[in-house]
């Protein structure tokens, strides 16, 4: 049986493929955006899991929008506006898929930064969207390019990760956030704000969500995979009710609802008196590992390489001399280090600068230092 045309043009996820190879315990993986399993708050969730044995109702079918106690908690926690609502999804990745299916017709234009999140490019590719990109600067998207893009293409939506961008780690400035919101309102473009790393800020000032400045032109994805556990597979999509209702309709046909026991477990965790301390500890661990990786790269990388500094998140973006980055990644993997080459983060990588995305959250300090030694030695062959 022939697969759908929309799927034929969507490549497999390089990151998922390399993670399979990187699962070898002898490989130091800087490839995936994996949280450290030692940070999972299992003990904080244990009382909730044990109490579920006396609550058969959480093992029954539930409403598509989500477990009502969790939805109500999040509505208050995020201080959603009166005309806004929420839907719980099986990870924020499902939220992205549902939004694409609810709103994108074949050929509709979606704007993204370049580079951008690979998973979003796959989702938009599956609904046959026309992806148009704008370049990224230190403060976020190139605003002149963005406005010109809005004028020329009349896009339906602009997808972005403003807080600790995947893959570059860039955090948008306050001025950029306000200007993007202004442009979305002026040109009637829906802003799709993906915020999976927002709670992982370990230095600097917390900035408002972009959607704060254009609440009725935005849909926001939030994830609990990075601050609780990826295995829970719980995310939440929020926005004005007229934006969320079609998403709920799509989800009804997709999976009826996300796991109720997992939603109940998340609610117990978020309400636990020690949850804030847990989050503080996670950020302290990741800050120390980031500093270890950053310092080692700064000390050992060839002078022709560039290195960004980040205030949070899970990634460092390393610019390298022009080369076949896939071949470099294969060589590094053969020497025991897994990285992600830059072309996978572009709809069209032709002419784009060579770079590597490095993750610092799932390796020990010793592994990070060893990985940089191997990386630097290999890069010297290209410099």
From TrEMBL:
One of its GO terms (biological process) is alpha-amino acid metabolic process. Keywords: Aminotransferase, Pyridoxal phosphate, Transferase. It is an enzyme of class 2 (transferase). Residues 52-374 form the Aminotransferase class I/classII large domain. One of its GO terms (molecular function) is 2-aminoadipate transaminase activity. InterPro entries: Aminotransferase_I/II_large (IPR004839), Class-I_PLP-dep_aminotransf (IPR050859), PyrdxlP-dep_Trfase (IPR015424), PyrdxlP-dep_Trfase_major (IPR015421), PyrdxlP-dep_Trfase_small (IPR015422). The keyword Transferase applies. Its cofactor is pyridoxal 5'-phosphate. Its EC number is 2.6.1.39. CDD domains: AAT_like. This is 2-aminoadipate transaminase. The lineage of its organism: Bacteria, Pseudomonadati, Pseudomonadota, Gammaproteobacteria, Vibrionales. The gene is lysN.
């Amino acid at each position: 049986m022939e697969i759908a045309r929309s799927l034929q043009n969507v490549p497999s996820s390089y990151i998922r493929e390399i993670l399979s190879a990187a699962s070898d315990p002898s490989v130091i993986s800087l490839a995936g955006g994996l949280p450290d399993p030692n940070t999972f708050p299992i003990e904080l969730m244990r009382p909730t899991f044990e109490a579920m044995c006396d609550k058969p109702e959480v093992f029954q079918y539930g409403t598509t929008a989500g477990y009502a106690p969790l939805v109500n908690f999040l509505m208050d926690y995020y201080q959603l506006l009166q005309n806004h609502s929420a839907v719980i999804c099986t990870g924020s990745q499902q939220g992205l898929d549902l939004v694409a299916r609810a709103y994108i017709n074949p050929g509709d234009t979606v704007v993204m930064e370049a580079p951008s999140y690979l998973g979003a490019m796959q989702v938009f590719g599956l609904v046959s969207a026309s992806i148009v990109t704008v370049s990224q600067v230190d403060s976020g998207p190139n605003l002149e390019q963005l406005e010109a893009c809005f004028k020329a293409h009349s896009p339906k939506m602009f997808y972005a990760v403003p807080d600790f961008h995947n893959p570059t780690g860039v955090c948008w400035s306050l001025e950029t956030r306000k200007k993007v919101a202004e442009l979305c309102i002026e040109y009637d473009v829906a802003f799709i704000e993906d915020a999976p790393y927002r709670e992982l800020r370990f230095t600097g000032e917390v900035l408002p969500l972009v959607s704060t400045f254009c609440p009725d032109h935005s849909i926001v994805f939030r994830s609990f995979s990075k601050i609780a556990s990826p295995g829970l597979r719980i995310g939440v999509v929020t926005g004005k009710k007229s934006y969320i209702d079609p998403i709920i309709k799509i989800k009804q046909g997709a999976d009826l609802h996300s796991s109720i026991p997992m939603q109940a477990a998340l609610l117990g965790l978020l309400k636990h008196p020690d949850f804030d301390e847990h989050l503080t500890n996670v950020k302290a661990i990741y800050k120390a590992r980031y500093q270890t990786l950053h310092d080692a790269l700064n000390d050992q990388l060839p002078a022709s390489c560039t290195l960004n500094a980040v205030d949070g998140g899970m990634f460092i973006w390393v610019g390298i001399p022009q080369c076949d980055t896939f071949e470099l990644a294969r060589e590094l993997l053969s020497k025991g280090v897994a990285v992600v080459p830059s072309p996978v983060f572009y709809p069209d990588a032709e002419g784009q600068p060579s770079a590597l995305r490095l993750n610092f959250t799932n390796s020990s300090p010793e592994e990070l230092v060893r990985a940089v030694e191997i990386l630097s030695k290999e890069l010297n062959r290209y410099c």
